[in-house]
Amino acid sequence: xxxxxxxxxxxxxxxxxxxxxxxxxxxxxxxxxxxxxxxxxxxxxxxxxxxxxxxxxxxxxxxxxxxxxxxxxxxxxxxxxxxxxxxxxxxxxxxxxxxxxxxxxxxxxxxxxxxxxxxxxxxxxxxxxxxxxxxxxxxxxxxxxxxxxxxxxxxxxxxxxxxxxxxxxxxxxxxxxxxxxxxxxxxxxxxxxxxxxxxxxxxxxxxxxxxxxxxxxxxxxxxxxxxxxxxxxxxxxxxxxxxxxxxxxxxxxxxxxxxxxxxxxxxxxxxxxxxxxxxxxxxxxxxxxxxxxxxxxxxxxxxxxxxxxxxxxxxxxxxxxxxxxxxxxxxxxxxxxxxxxxxxxxxxxxxxxxxxxxxxxxxxxxxxxxxxxxxxxxxxxxxxxxxxxxxxxxxxxxxxxxxxxxxxxxxxxxxxxxxxxxxxxxx
Length: 427
Ligand code: AMO
Fold this sequence. Notes:
The chain is of the alpha+beta class. The protein has two domains: 93 residues, CATH 2.40.50.140; 294 residues, Bira Bifunctional Protein, Domain 2 (BirA Bifunctional Protein, domain 2, 2-Layer Sandwich). Helices cover 26% and strands 25% of the residues. The strands form three sheets. An eight-stranded mixed β-sheet has the order 6-10-11-16-15-14-13-12, with helices on both faces. A five-stranded mixed beta barrel has the order 1-2-3-5-4. A three-stranded antiparallel β-sheet has the order 7-9-8, with no helix packed on it. The longest helix has 23 residues. The protein starts with 16 loop residues before the first strand and ends in a 20-residue tail after the last helix.
């Protein structure tokens, strides 16, 4: 049905006849001429309706945001502040929008968060909101094509599961016929099991669910996790893969999304390697600020702000203490209190966790139990370690947080189409 987008007008020649479809964002009727600002996913055009043309008399019937189809011609000279113009010959209303609208598209008034997200389909008609998802899609595409080029296979693993991966708390319980099951927090166990299946490099892009009570600008209860796992690799190999994946994601976004460098704070693909700092170096920097971090303690947001202020953009914090890492993380050979793990950070925001994994089944079983989990629930996973499991490493990257930092969005919810948070499971 649709042949041309509004932006295609930029390449058409004067006098050419075509049909444009879209939403009537604004309608103005003067004595001798009328104007419709027509919008589609590529932008805006001023549709000029002359008084002596057929459609002039129907302009008064078109409500804002109605879906219309306009047949007309490309003008000799564009005379519109919008930068694009189209002369209407006939207009048909494909679907009339009700009035008043639940949310204005052109009004400058500040709309509260709940009104926006309760009417998200309308909210996304604003370019400044819809372009976030074009950016997110382009970033993901760049990462995906990079991983494919490195021999990774994209996989899909179950989201209804029987065991926790990131610790026992924060699980959404679901009724699974006569049993209880959970929504998966991470594809962790499955991506590792696939390493045992002989697929040496896998990645997955899928939803992850966390029943976290946090109500912060960084937390969602459902987010998109980009996960990789690679065989015969350590934490350094995984970090290397991550910094290149991020660079390719940003580079694809800047190359393919119109106007990208104007609404992104990242104006060019970051240089690799990203800076690296160890957890112990962070602790000593913080102690220089009079802040004492207890043995094996995680770094909080305020502490990460101090560390983040030392870097321009992305940086890794490596070698976290074993107390703050999950059971599947392997430890340093010479200092077993510390792990072969890393977080990728942008300022104080954590974007990725990753590590080299434990691949010895007995050590893994002990570590599951040390974390207070019941190892019998993990038998399906432990079994895959007993018949030839290579050393392996990987990471999980939150796509909404990555989009948030690249576009400098104040809240991660802006990077989720229909966010799920502590109080919102609608629409
Ligand atoms: P982790 O639990 O650190 O690691 O999660 C990985 C990344 O997922 C994102 N993320 C979130 N994004 C929005 N809201 C949340 N509530 C949320 N929780 C996590 C973050 C985070 O860095 N299995 C490991 C990964 C691995 O080692 O491979 C894991 O899930 O960007």
